[in-house]
Design a protein that fits this description.
The complex is a heterodimer of chains A (379) and B (140).
Chain A (H helix, E strand, L loop, with lengths): L3 E8 L10 H16 L8 E5 L7 H9 L6 E4 L5 H14 L5 E8 L15 H12 L4 H16 L3 H15 L13 H5 L3 E3 L2 E2 L9 E9 H7 L4 E9 L3 E2 L2 E2 L1 H16 L8 E3 L5 H10 L8 H6 L16 H4 L7 H14 L12 E8 L3 E9 L1
Parallel strand pairs in A: 2-3, 2-4, 11-12
Antiparallel strand pairs in A: 1-7, 4-7, 5-6, 8-13, 9-10, 12-13
Helix pairs in contact in A: 1-2, 3-13, 6-10, 9-10
Chain B lengths: L8 E2 L5 E4 L2 E9 L5 E2 L14 E5 L3 E10 L12 E8 L4 E6 L11 E11 L5 E9 L5
Parallel strand pairs in B: 1-10
Antiparallel strand pairs in B: 2-3, 3-4, 3-5, 6-7, 6-9, 7-8, 9-10
The chains are: A alpha/beta (379), B mainly beta (140).
The complex binds zinc ion.
Amino acid sequence: MTKAVVAGVAMLPFGRHRESTLSDLGAEVVLGALSDAGLGWPDVQLMYCGVVGVSMTPGTGISAQLGQTGLPVINIDNASASGSSAFREGSLAVASGRVDVAVAVGVGKLNQSFGGGSVRPSSPEAREGNIRRMQGVMPPVGYFAMQTRRRMHDFGSTIEQFALVSVKNHKHASHNPFAQLQNELTVEEVVNARMIADPLTVPHCCPMGDGAAAAVVVSDEKARQLGAPPITVDASAFRTGSYENGSPSEAKTTHLTAQEAYTQAGLGPDDIDLVQIHDAFTVEEIEYCEQLGFCDVGEGERMVENGDTSIGGRIPFSTDGGLLARGHPLGPTGLAQVWETVQQLRGLSGPRQVAGARVGLVHMVGVGGVCLVHILKHS
Amino acid sequence: MTPNNGAPIPLVEGVFRIADGRPVLLVSRCSFCDRRFFPPRERCAACSSDDMRTEDASQNGELYTWTVVRELGGQREGFVPYVIGQIDLAGGPRVTGVVTCDPDAPTIGMPVRLCLVPQGHDNDGTELVGYGFEPADGTR
Ligand SMILES: [Zn+2]
């Protein structure tokens, strides 16, 4: 079996791209990633497109724009993990020997709404909507606010400690021209910002936006022909939730998925040089830091406080600003993480470069308990 | 004259019943692994067994965690703020619901009990109710 090599990456700055369709955005980054790899669209044998909640199939639209070569195109909707799922499937297709050149692309535009149902159920969907309505309309921020509150109770953590995650991510993003929010923030500014769901203010939550990102994955033989830097996909682990205390828990799923990834790569937490995670809310970095094995449960706050997860620290997290500052347009987010990791492993990250970075871990979760962990290595 | 003699009816059937003016949540218990689930389900989330029995949950519990939702992304401004929490019912399981108390009032561990929450009217005028939680010690 061949190894999958990430030969090219590209992304658009996250933020506003109102003038373009999803397929326009996708076509631009696909061409960018191919050019980065030294390839052209006719070389692509298979494409996966990560996208959330749109009725049309933008991946197919990308191929219609770039040239109808007849290649298979598969659109994947897996919530926040759509782009990561596209990356996994592209990598596995190459590793299996089925194709030499696969593209994973992710696209997203802001069209989010949260709301309750209508009156009495006339369909199973309406019935489920009404159950959710009785449970209380629960935007994602509400769920993570409750998790933050409980953690403060269990470990005596303070809201300032959680705010430090946002401060750190904004600082990282201030060196990333592709980030949606490039302004620096202080702890006081985070804590005193507008309250969304107690105790979480606006900067504890990721912004929504538009964006696109893509990666070209090739066989190791193809990579040698292209002279691509040997950045290999050494692990691709994917789990859905396991039942725990009333619901699947992201923390437990992250733990199990990471264990699987470490086993695949023959590596452990000590071998990882940098990490990109699903940090849509500040509490997530602290919990995943523990679940990925970088510290014990209850010590995540101290990791952030010590600067361990900052660039220059023991294990930098979200070197591009993470979901909190780089942004989270859903479909492309996982591929933006791959973009950042590849740039870091190539040593091209300028002022936010992690010195000597050779192994990067990429983590993503999605609504419903989906979790992916990839490990990329500069071999 | 509305159906059901004017008495309110649950917004969704098969999720809770009304006893003495308060909701009783219906819980599925797995005959195989003994875990309990709310809302009721036909197959166990832990072991996939389809041998599930429906039983009543306790009407009392304590607040495991909570938040006050103050914004809902544009629409439904009249709806916020509201308190929402996870409640450990006595004997389990842990459930999610609105807590009908002042946003300054909730604390972790606070005793709460089930209460009916208005959910509008059916097309024929029947009053619809859901379930929620209120502080059990009478404070609001
Ligand atoms: Zn069971």
